[in-house]
Design brief:
Number of helices: 3
Bound molecules: coenzyme A
Oligomer: single chain
CATH superfamily: Gcn5-related N-acetyltransferase (GNAT)
CATH architecture: 3-Layer(aba) Sandwich
Order of helices and strands: EEEHEHEHE
Number of domains: 1
CATH class: Alpha Beta
CATH topology: Aminopeptidase
Length: 122
């Protein structure tokens, strides 16, 4: 999904289906590729993208969870996802996988987390 200003793309986001279990992804639906170009940030474009993509996706998949990976220090993105009901997937197996897949930061901390948004009726 694209956010357009005239014919100029100012932001994008997508949702894809992960069919197989991999080292970094549980099978299921994943939100990915959220980005707003810097000079268009802070005025609601990111929120509109997340809102629209979830609304469209939910029409057909409202009984399924939605996942994403985010850097814990990414305050703008994390704040936005929390507002849309995403919560940290606290699962030791996936925690281990993420630690194998992503490097530590310079301070030796593990910065990536999987967030999960449960179906609305759960
Ligand atoms: C994350 C990102 C898409 C947000 O887009 P945006 O258009 O600036 O966001 P919005 O203006 O719609 O703000 C929506 C919410 O995001 C959060 N947010 C946005 N900018 C923020 C900031 N500078 N600090 C803290 N929270 C912020 C807030 O929760 C905000 O809600 P509020 O207005 O009620 O406080 C944008 O910062 C971006 O492209 N970042 C780089 C790419 C990235 O990190 N993508 C996510 C990868 S998982």
């Amino acid at each position: 999904m694209l956010a357009l200003h005239g014919q100029k793309v100012v932001g994008h986001v997508s949702v894809f289906r992960q069919w197989e279990k991999t080292d970094v992804a549980v099978p299921g639906w994943w939100l990915t590729g959220l980005e707003v170009i810097p000079r268009w940030r802070g005025i609601g474009v990111g929120r509109q993208l997340v809102h629209s993509v979830i609304t469209m996706w939910e029409r057909e998949h409202h009984e399924e969870p939605l996942y994403l990976v985010v850097n814990r220090r990414n305050t703008p993105a994390s704040g936005l996802f929390l507002q849309y009901g995403f919560k940290e997937l606290k699962d030791p197996e996936w925690e281990r996988k993420l630690r194998r897949a992503y490097r530590q930061d310079r301070r030796g901390e593990w910065v990536y987390q999987i967030l999960k948004r449960n179906p609305v009726d759960q």
